[in-house]
Amino acid sequence: MRTLIAYSTEHGATRDYAEALARELSGEVVLVNLRENPSPDASSFGQVVIGSAIYAGQAQKEVRDFCARNLDALRPKRLGLFICCWFQDQAERQLQAAFPPELLDSAVIKSALGGRINLGELSFFERLAAKVVGVKGNASRYSEESARRFAQALKTESSN
Ligand SMILES: Cc1cc2nc3c(=O)[nH]c(=O)nc-3n(C[C@H](O)[C@H](O)[C@H](O)COP(=O)(O)O)c2cc1C
User: Fold this and answer.
1) Closest by alpha carbon to 11, among 118, 104, 102?
2) d(CA 66, CA 62)
């Protein structure tokens, strides 16, 4: 089955998950950074994975726009949804807010994967915003193992 992995990232962790998933999935996999190509044609793919970094509680605009514009095309696909975020206590709420309910309902797998923070990579304003949301220092919850589990579930779980 052909798989489209469409994602958006600010600082790379979501891209690293997308690339890890691409390595784990079998068949042809096409990776699309929605910042570079906001409108990939989902119709020719049997399976679609959509991933977004979370900032200030929200999915990236490119991901929200892609889902909203392609709702009808995406709903019947074998669908995997993930967010990449830091706060574990807010992960489920952020996951539910990141994608339209129709896609969350029909997804084979949906997951909040752990992010990472490198203060040295952040702009002045991002560092200020990071302080406001309680991000205090460099740290990583990035996990290749969780990408492997996500890919495995996508391969084996049956659709809703
Ligand atoms: C300014 C800023 C705001 C953030 N806001 C949130 C947030 O609201 N919730 C959360 O769980 N993580 C938050 N994070 C953590 C990011 O989701 C995490 O760093 C993730 O790895 C970002 O993905 P990316 O590297 O693909 O951009 C924030 C990080 C920064 C720097």
Assistant:
1) 118
2) 6
Cα distances (angstroms) measured from residue 42 to each of 31, 39, 58, 71: 12, 9, 23, 10
Per-residue model confidence as pLDDT tens for the chain (160 residues): 899 999 999 999 999 999 999 999 999 999 999 999 999 999 999 999 999 999 999 999 999 999 999 999 999 999 999 999 999 999 999 999 999 999 999 999 999 999 999 989 999 999 888 888 887 788 899 999 999 999 999 998 766 5
Instruction: Please state, in angstroms and as integers, the Cα–Cα distance from residue 141 to each residue in 9, 13, 14, 36, following that order.
Output: 16, 10, 12, 26
Joined tokens for residue 70: 């392609």
Architecture field, domain 3-154: 3-Layer(aba) Sandwich (3.40)
Residue 59 · residue 89 · CB < 8 Å: no
CA 71/CA 24 separation, integer angstroms = 26
Ligand 1 centroid to Cα of residue 50, in Å, is 17
Give yes or no for residue 6 CB within 6 A of ligand 1.
no
14 lines ligand 1 (CB under 6 A): yes
- Would you kindly state where each structural domain of the chain is located, as residue ranges? 3-154
Atom of ligand 1 nearest to the CA of 130: 1
